Amino acid sequence: MREELEELIGYELEDPRIGGVNVTEALLSPDFRQAHIRVLLHGTPSEQAQTLEALKHAKPFLKHQLTERLQLFRTPELYFEAALPAALAAKAPQILKRIKRGRPKPEKNPIS
């Protein structure tokens, strides 16, 4: 499903609000009624918000195309979410470990 969505968004949507989007994950619920689609957005925060809004607006088209291409009996409801940028995603495990330990990040230049 991820590959099909990547192709649909990248090549077949003609909405000018949709710029640089990469589908990173498509997470299906156990009953296949919902799909949370994580997308990596490029541009400024306002451009990213516009892109998410455009994707929400394009949901009916995307659902119809997925149903035809994947020959699905029931197409899940699509929910688009912004994925973490690669730089932040790489740091996430370290940040979570620090939170778990309850220790603040040590300062680089302590004032004595």
Describe this structure in words.
This protein is α+β, with helices and mostly antiparallel strands and 112 residues long. The protein has a single domain, classed as GMP Synthetase, Chain A, domain 3 (2-Layer Sandwich). It has 4 helices and 3 strands; from the N terminus they run αββααβα. The chain has helices at residues 2-12, 45-57, 59-70, 86-101, and strands at 21-28, 34-41, 77-82. Strands 1-2-3 form a 3-stranded mixed β-sheet, with helices on one face. β1 and β2 (34-41) form a beta hairpin. The longest helix has 16 residues, at 86-101. It starts with a helix and ends in an 11-residue tail after the last helix. The model has no long low-confidence stretch (mean pLDDT 84).
List the helices and strands and how they pair.
Layout: H1 2-12, E1 21-28, E2 34-41, H2 45-57, H3 59-70, E3 77-82, H4 86-101
Parallel strand pairs: 2-3
Antiparallel strand pairs: 1-2
Helix pairs in contact: 1-3
Fill in the keyword field for this structure.
46% helix, 3-stranded mixed beta sheet, elongated, 3 strands, single chain, alpha+beta
